[in-house]
Amino acid sequence: MRILVLGGTGYLGRHVVGHLRGLPGARVSGAGRSPGAGVGARIDLGRDPLKRVTELIESVTPDAVVNCAGATGGDAVTLAEVNARGPALLAAALREAAPAARLVHLGSAAEYGPGTPGTKATESAVTCPLGPYGATKLAGTVAVTGSGLDAVVLRVGNPVGPGAPVTGLPGRITALLRTAGPDPSAVLRLGDLSAYRDFVDVRDVARAVGLAVTAAGPLPPVLNIGGGEAVRVRELVRRLAAAAGFAGRIEEDEGGSDRSARVSWQCSDITAAHTALGWRPEHTLDESLAALWAAAQAGPHDPGGDGTP
């Protein structure tokens, strides 16, 4: 089976490529904006013309394409180019070059916007993203689900685990803990930690991609891939600090933040992913945080790049 992975050098993309290469009979090709191991071609879905993307697909003749490319930061123009234009361009290229190939696109739980406390969002929940990131990711999802291709969007929660980039909270806290070390007088001064988020291990995300690529028959247009539990961010920080052996003090901004106040609860219902793919998360949050800390201790991690929904 020939599989083309776009955004293969990003946080999620690296894990996805590694997992797919372990599948029996899989021949995995990578392409992305950033140089890195396993990237055979440079491609920028946000800016390259349709012809260039079509030619790349024609050269690989894939049975499946996985789009891990995405941007979490930057101005609204950058987010729109990568998260909205990118998937639309890819779908158009696939219709020309490989209309029978399956497209697996990584979306984001941010597409839902604020959740109702105590309620898990199903795939049919109303989408009401509040910022440019969630809005552009939702636009990408619409482009994929409306493409007419054999396509599925995996709507990913908050990824955590080995190699988490400093652009996300788990990676940023890990970097601060490495700097603080075992000093009992160290103080971590953080923002509002009162929000609830649905954390999912990056290795479980990669496994879900593998199942989506190889599943027989059509899949639902959107599947939630999350931990299935709402965890207070404050609790995640406490557990990560414990895994790191942090002996200092954590100070939280009591004034709160605008985002935490507006999106105080996010949690995904992952029933449909189990029904369609036989998928459930295998790693507990404590296992994810232990792996994150162990990887950070082993050496510096990649700061991010494309592929972090």
From TrEMBL:
In terms of Pfam families, this protein maps to: Epimerase
Q: Which positions fall inside the NAD-dependent epimerase/dehydratase domain?
A: 3-226
The record's annotation in InterPro entries points to: Epimerase_deHydtase, NAD(P)-bd_dom_sf
Annotated family:
Belongs to the NAD(P)-dependent epimerase/dehydratase family.
Can you name this protein?
A: NAD-dependent epimerase/dehydratase domain-containing protein
| The species this protein was found in | Streptomyces similanensis
- Provide the taxonomic classification: Bacteria, Bacillati, Actinomycetota, Actinomycetes, Kitasatosporales
